[in-house]
Amino acid sequence: MPITWQLTTKAAEMSQPHLITTEDLAFSARADDIVDLTRQFRALKHRRLIITGGGGTGKTTLAVQLLLELLAVRTTEQTMAHGGEIIPVPVLLPISGWDCRAYPHLHDWLAVRLAQDYPALTRPEFGQSAAATLAYGGHILPILDGLDELSDQNRVKVIKALNISLTAHDPVILTCRTSEFTEAITQTGRPINGAAVIIPATLTTADAARYLTACLPGDLPEAWRKVLAALTEGIVPGLAQLASAPLGLWLIRAVYIDTASDPTSLAGPLGRDAVALRIHLLDRLIPALTKTRLASMNPAEHFRPRRSRDAVATRRYLAYLASHFHPAATRDITWWHIPNTVPHLRIAAGITAGLLTGLVFGLGATLAFGLITSLAAGLVGGFVGGLTAAGSWVDEAPGHAPLRPCGRTTLFFQSIRSNLSFGLAFALATGLVFGPGGGVAFGLEITFMAGLVFGLVEWAEQSTHPPIRTPRSGRQAERILTLFLALLAGIAVGIVVGLGGVFMMGLGNLLTFGLAIGLAVGLAGGLGVGLGGGFWGRLGGGLGGGNHHAWLACTLAVARLVLTRRLPLRIMNFLDDAHRLGLLRAVGPVYQFRHADLHDHLAKKDAHRPSQ
Which residue did the predictor score with more confidence, 22 or 200? Predict the structure, then answer.
């Protein structure tokens, strides 16, 4: 869309011109000529730009356009750089994740966020401070999106933190709604050092009419002739107001032009009421997109869902997410926080995990203590332990499993060695308690298995994998890690129980069956109970240890929400399709609604809808 971006007329919102540019202060460029706009940005003295505008004016879109163009010309800039000049890499970050109390300086937060979103930066060959080196060394151009999504108080804190943090060599791009930015600068008492502030020029009715005409067939239908005439003649002020912003034009195109719907109502009473028209278009957006963007498995079709989607179900699912990831709190739709939207899931997960674990280990101890005693002790212990341990699942962040051994052999042996010392102490303790014979042997068995298991857990959870940049790949990596730890623990428990069975069955039946038969029965029975029970018991009780259960918690939560028709079973497939439909956007490992207006609209609608 031919949107012109120009400097704000509010001089108090910007620094003195000589702090912004070494030339005459001027900035005027069109969004459909991103090369020229990028050139003007690069000409700024400190390359600091604040993109402001009303809702739906294309602030984030312009920021992403700048990011892509800056990446495209970065190689050329590097070849032309001289005197040790650093050409930073632009990185898009939602500013809502910056807690100024925990990270008072931009670079502190930037270093943490880079390490979190780009795990490859923590690889041993880069050192432990690679992310911090990039952040503090001026190698990153942070594109901070959505300052207006913070509270009034936090917006002021962020602006103050930016002024404290930015050195002469630190570029930054920031997006914010105009009114919120003006208020924040007023409260702060000073602008952001050396930053140019731009706003979009309002699209005229003639501009809007030309754009809509270009989207229609050459031979204009009579209904559209009447609508466009009403628009340019000022008969429908609501339609004119909506069409003065890119979001409004896109809604009109998606709902009416792309679906070939009759636009007659736009020239009537509906076109005179901007609020009613906006609600009308937002209500019909999801049906329009699911109708026009048909499913396709062609990899080149990036903007078509992979599966056919029902409009009513899609709206219901998105409304649930919009209301439970409420815009007043966050714009991020994080799959690992879905469990927090389900009441009592924490208790249910703890009870289920505890009872499963108690049942398995109760059955495993039957030979030694009897069926009733073993089951009772196992269930009670599992119940208490499950409430304590599994209840924390909903609060855990996802991990990932870099299980490739190549280049990680040294790290593997270091992890094993560091976990054997505790096991050796345990072996000596059991020897003192149960006698130097069987006690030490049992202790050494536990020592080896515990050292191996916990060493593998530690090795698996250390990040040396290529970066995880999408919500889907992040969830897949978390699932791999979870199942790997479950299998690992199951095998370990199986071997321990199996060897214990060899000892018990072999000696106990020495006179009756002979040593060989006793050993065989003990090994088979012990390994059978250990491997099977060990796996399923650890599946219920924490999936093999470690600190990551986000995938399991999300799976349990989604299963519960499927019963009430709030979310689909294959949640990541749905979110991916919503992204392809243009309803969501991916920002690193999280999703956000493509337009804040749609998020607000669905959250408000769903707030008054009873559970089904």
Answer: 200
Residue type, 9: T
pLDDT at 410: 61
Coarse DSSP helix, strand, coil percentages of the chain, rounded to the nearest 5 percent: 65, 5, 30
Residues 436, 444: Cα–Cα separation, whole Å:
11
Whole-model pTM? 0.66
The Cα–Cα gap between 171 and 48 comes to 5
The DSSP code sequence of 462-485 is S--SPP--SHHHHHHHHHHHHHHH
pLDDT digits (tens, 9 = 90+) for 49-80: 999 998 778 898 899 999 999 999 998 888 88
Residues 6+ apart with CB under 8 A from 401: 460, 461, 465, 477, 480, 481, 484
**Do residues 17 and 195 lie in contact, with contact meaning Cβ atoms separated by under 8 Å?**
no
For the chain, give the longest Cα–Cα distance.
106
Pairing of strands 140-145, 590-593: unpaired
H or E segment to which residue 518 belongs? helix 510-541
Q: What distance in Å separates the CA atoms of residue 450 and residue 544, rounded to the nearest whole number?
A: 12
What's the rounded Cα separation, in Å, for the pair 99 and 112? 11
Burial tier of 302 (Cβ tally within 10 Å: 0-12, 13-18, 19+) = exposed
Helix, coil or strand: residue 307: coil
Q: The domain 4-200 is classified under which CATH number: 3.40.50, 3.30.70, 1.10.3470, 1.10.10?
A: 3.40.50
Per DSSP, 339 falls in state G
Q: Are strands 196-200 and 4-7 parallel, antiparallel or unpaired?
A: antiparallel
pLDDT at res. 447: 57
CA quadruple 510, 516, 517, 519: dihedral positive or negative?
positive
How is residue 93 annotated by DSSP?
E
